[in-house]
Amino acid sequence: MTTRLIFGFGLLLVFQSYYIRLSKAEKDTSINFPACDVFCHGELLDTIQMSHLFKDSKTFVDLKLKHLPNETIKNFKEFMRSKNDKPTIDDLKCFVNTNFEPSGKEFSKWTPNDWKNNPKFLNSIKNPSMKQWGKDLNRIWKTLGRKMIDDVHKNPDYYSIIPVSNGVIVPGGRFIEFYYWDSYWIIRGLLYSQMYETARGMLSNFLSMIKRFGFVPNGGRIYYAKRSQPPLLAAMIDSYVDFTNDTNFAIEAVGLLEDEFHFWKKNHTVFVNGHALAVYRDSSTGPRPESYREDVKNAEEFPTPELKQEFYSNIAAGAESGMDFSSRWFISKNGTNQGTLKDIKCRSIVPVELNAILYWNAKIIAKFHAMSNNEEKAIEYTLYAEEILEAIEAVLWNKKAGVWFDYDLINKKPRKYFVPTNLAPLWTNAFNIANSEIISKTVLDYLEKLGLNNHPGGVPNTLVHSGEQWDYPNVWPPMQYILVQGLENLKTTKASKLSKLWGHRWVKSNYEAYRNSNNSMFEKYDSEVFGGHGGGGEYDIQTGFGWTNGVIVEFLTKYGNDITPAQK
After folding, report:
1. Which residues are catalytic?
2. How many Cβ atoms from other residues are within 10 Å of residue 151's Cβ?
3. Residues 349 and 279: beta-carbon distance below 8 Å
4. What is the 8-class DSSP label of residue 395?
5. Is pLDDT above 50 for 99?
6. pLDDT tens, residue by residue, 6-49
7. Quick check: helix, strand or coil at residue 433?
8. From CA 189, how far away is CA 555, in angstroms rounded?
9. 110, 147 contact by CB (below 8 A)
10. What CA–CA distance (Å, rounded) separates 312 from 290?
């Protein structure tokens, strides 16, 4: 009790000093992007997006302006007057062609200077076919490399892109800018590919975002600047230090990592039975610009502006989670996960993985402070980690089921539905290591009861058929990684065996899909089909693909000595 009182007083002092330190950063987060008047809100955005001029709503908001934003708005108003506010599709096409240039103008293709033809990870792969695949994946880093042209920095108001100084590896497909949580697995893949300079450049870009916004936005566009994604920057930097031993980079970054940590505590905290936990939230209003038409249509049945805005806020929070979208975020009137996207209540659900990641952040920040012998700060963040762990165990751990569950703030109960993130505390080591044997047994029993080993293409993201892309039968690379690494972290014989089994299965199924699809790596896959790719959701299947490549490069390094394509 004494420790908790001291810690509580310490928290007050920390928050006071944090607000003083962040005052400048908070001013930076209110930076006005003039191009937002075109791409984030307003009549022009509404008119273009609701006209169905483009198949994908993201297409318009990624275009380049030919004129400054205020001139573009002026041109639009004159255009609408000339058409008596009733332009045809052809009229709108003409307006867009006159005032905008195609997307992608902000980038030049970029081959990283540190790309290597034969990185060392290939030496870990025994099978010739798998080794060739590893070489192919390594070459994909070059196709996903992008660097912003000088004009973006000189004339940022003509673009929706957020300028960054260093080159990036993008996910691929429609995603031609950086994304926050994707980059964790991309960075891991780059590190295994010995592309340390590229990884460091991307990390520096993210740190510059914290300087400007106080946090890392969802992605590299101004219309993403009101929300974040799972905060994995500290873990990215920790991985970078593990590979390079560049401790100075970590020490120099730790102050900004603290800023991000406190951004999440300040803006995302809820209390459950006296315990502080985090939820996904955003600070935007109205529909998401990149999915404007879809959001407006889904909000039509809500009778009041207030209820529409509640829907928009929850849909944006779901996007912040990275898991957009899933029955995981549905709360129906009877308190279940049954329903449609209109039942999304993401802001009212305490997610296991977010709190496990924040625990991880606190532990990593403490570690980085210890590197510079800042014992006071190391203790402070160790105590933060202990508080978060206590909250996770008190609210999210379900003793009867033997795993962790999300928590429903509306109905005040655990959400006893399968999602791979139920095991996220194993991935981030947010559990009592002394209880590994007990936790291993309960977790393995839970997985066996659900029959999760019976899916040839990998563990599905949920067991619900909703049509949303983060639901059954889709299976996602980061979720497989969380499961495989989490089970391995238990360090028990049975958990390690299942971890290896699922790791092998994922590699082999991805390879089968690659061979059968003209050498494509996909954003998501099909749990029902060995070698099948996924579908559903707001947009078509995407290839590339950054996080998929990163996971496979790491798994090929780990399992390459004893895995062959023939084993299914």
Report:
1. 324, 523
2. 13
3. yes
4. I
5. yes
6. 344 344 334 333 333 333 333 344 467 999 999 999 999 999 99
7. helix
8. 10
9. yes
10. 13
Lay out the sheet containing 168-169: strands in order across.
107-109, 145-148, 168-169
1-5, 151-155, 346-350: range with lowest mean pLDDT: 1-5
Q: In degrees rounded to 5, what are phi and psi of residue 289?
A: -55, -40
Identify the CA nearest to 355 among candidates 461, 260, 280, 304.
280
In angstroms, rounded to a whole number, what is the distance separating the alpha carbons of residues 560 and 85? Answer: 62
Helix 352-371, helix 375-391: angle, nearest 10: 160
Contacts 24+ apart (CB under 8 A), 131-134: 131/560, 133/511, 133/514, 133/556, 134/553, 134/556, 134/560
Checking 9-15 for CB contacts under 8 A at 24+ apart, the result is 10/380, 10/383, 14/380, 15/262, 15/266
Mean confidence (pLDDT) of the chain = 93
Rg (CA), the chain: 23
pTM, full prediction: 0.93
The reported pLDDT for the residue numbered 539 is 57
Range of weakest confidence among 14-23, 26-35, 67-76, 310-319: 14-23
* CA 385/CA 377 separation, integer angstroms: 12
How many secondary structure helices (H) and strands (E) does the chain include?
A: 21, 14
The label of the residue with tokens 């010995």 reads: 194
Q: Are 257 and 240 in contact (CB under 8 A)?
A: no
Count CB atoms within 10 A of the CB of residue 70.
12
